[in-house]
Write a structure and sequence with these properties.
The protein is mostly helical. Helix content is 72%, strand content 0%.
Length: 162
């Protein structure tokens, strides 16, 4: 499978939830653009793309089980859902484990341990800042403290006029 196959599989998984589909499509777009602009190898780009597509895979379950999509619930539920979702895709166990790890930590800012994790955090924040109408102060703080890639930071500053 390719990231395009995963995209189609996630659209189907989303069962017509247009907000969820639009969200992961936007995160994917930013993640892909950042990864490519940062000059990452094709395998790392593929991993980042897949992680971006499935990062909120737990949202439907969290809505049913908890009544909301709190980030900690997403992280808790997302790891096993991701492994199950990707198990017959042809991706290696190592690849699937890393994607599941990223899904299980994509709201944890104090444990970023790789460029794939960094880019997922940045891409998701770029979308969430708009969708959740974050304050200029919140966005500036995030830029200063957590954005590390040249491309992600440039996007954040340009989009949100910092």
């Amino acid at each position: 499978m390719t990231s395009t196959d995963i995209l189609l599989k996630m659209i189907d998984f989303s069962d017509g939830n247009l907000h969820d589909i639009a969200h992961f499509m936007k995160v994917h777009g930013y993640a892909q653009a950042i990864a490519k602009a940062e000059g990452l190898d094709k395998d790392t780009v593929e991993l980042i793309e897949v992680a971006a597509l499935v990062h909120d895979i737990a949202c439907p379950l969290c809505r049913l089980k908890y009544g909301n999509t709190n980030g900690k619930y997403q992280e808790l539920e997302g790891i096993e859902l991701t492994k199950e979702f990707l198990k017959d895709t042809g991706y290696s166990d190592k690849f699937i484990e890393r994607v599941a790890y990223l899904v299980g930590h994509h709201h944890t800012l104090n444990a970023i341990d790789g460029i794939d994790y960094q880019i997922l955090i940045e891409a998701d924040y770029l979308v969430n800042a708009d969708e959740s109408k974050y304050s200029k102060e919140n966005i500036a703080n995030m830029a200063e403290r957590y954005f590390k890639t040249k491309t992600g930071l440039a996007m954040l500053k340009s989009i949100y006029k910092l």
